[in-house]
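Can't attach files on this board, so I'm pasting raw text. These are the components:
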Amino acid sequence: MSHSAASLTVTRSGGDAAIAAAALTVKLGRQPILHALDFTLPQGRITGLLGPSGSGKTTLMRAIVGAQRISAGTLTVLGLPAGTPSLRRQVGYVTQSPSVYPDLTVEANVRYFGAMHRKGKADMAEAIAAVGLGPLGRRKAADLSGGQLNRVSLACALVAHPRLLVLDEPTVGLDPVLRADLWDRFRALAEAGTTLLVSSHVMEEASRCETLLLLREGRLLSQLTPAELSQRGHSSNLEQAFLAVIREQEAYDGGSPPAQASTGSRDTGVTKQHGSVR
Amino acid sequence: MDVRMMLATARRVLSQLRHDHRSIAMILVVPALLLTAVYFLYENETLPPGMPRTFDRVGLMMLAIFPFVVMFLVTSITMLRERTSGTLERLLTTPVHKADLLFGYGIAFSLMAALQSLVATAVAYWVFGLDIAGAPGYVVLIAVINAVLGVALGLFCSAFARTEFQAVQFMPVVVVPQILLCGLFVARDRMNDVLEAISNVLPLTFSVDALQEIAAHAEATERLWQDAGIMAAISLGVLILAALTLRRRTA
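---
Top answer:
Structure tokens for the assembled complex are below.
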């Protein structure tokens, strides 16, 4: 935690917080998935949620959109406790696997999710155009490619014009051209005032975010900017930098007094179990 | 409750079904074909004078049982897909009210059930000369209430299935006992006390009772409305139970 204290002040200057977590803890059954996370995310920025698979990214996102009950601590989203009914109008969530109806057309999918936010035809057309699927509007979702399906799923969230958009690995399985294209759209959304939280396990995408949350085994390693990450990891390659930060953290855990060292070993035991459960 | 969201859900469910021509054809045609089979099964029976044909009794009850069974299956599979594909979780992060979702489903499948029972009832009356005292409109009404009951039970049972295979297995558990005990095979007053007691609380029993009222009386009787009311109340209760199985937040 002491590592992230300095970088927190950087991001706190971004005005009112979009998301604030204090000692946020989530357990699935008795398995701790998130361990006492503390962070504050600014509004109108793109925050990257980075970490290896199984590090708790999806659980954190589900907690933010109100789909996951939290076990302890607080989680405030747009000034309200996560899960507050009125937040459902302002928060958009795109799950990792595209959650759309394969037997409906692109338009019917987006129109339906739009109707849940009292949005009409114009919003539907706008959202479909925003993900570049205009010409495919009348195609059945089942007939689209994986990347196109991902974008339909994104359009189903964009149609509601959310203030906060939570995207779980939106670029997974996309080719580099599409990935760059999608990141340009995210940037445009952020410039228009939308707050984005984007998870990824591809470190090169980190450079496109303004703030990064580094998650590992359910703990917040650090909150920093991409520049700070490459500085701290002594590499311009963010993947190398991330690995260096992890090693540094491990050395820090290992070099601490016996009491803390035993905490560390217990934790690795827990995460192993967690890994086997999933 | 938001009527627009409810209607949008009904519209969405129907357009999902519209793309599936084979299912629509089966929903509309299969009951008529089975009725045909029942008709020819009893074609050569010899009846004492004044005794109604078996087809008039069994065929009539089948008109109510079809929509119940078919809608139970269609709904439980559709809802299970919604649960497993992530669309339900996503919907529950939007402002939609759970009741809007469930009643949207109810409206969509009740419309299909009404079409189904119109086809089946028309075939029963016009092709096979179904001969009962009451009006066909009441038969269709009871069939539609039965379909809503099937939808409600399907929505509820889908919560307890993880796969489509499991969902289909709920049919012998939930549907078959009701068909066995509703009075179709053995008159209820001839069952042993335990079976009769169970039969007394099963929803399908009330629809068979209602159909027997329609068969025996030209005008709607008090008892017909009472049966219909009880079935509607049970359907509503099961829909509410189904709503409780939709969790916005998981622990």
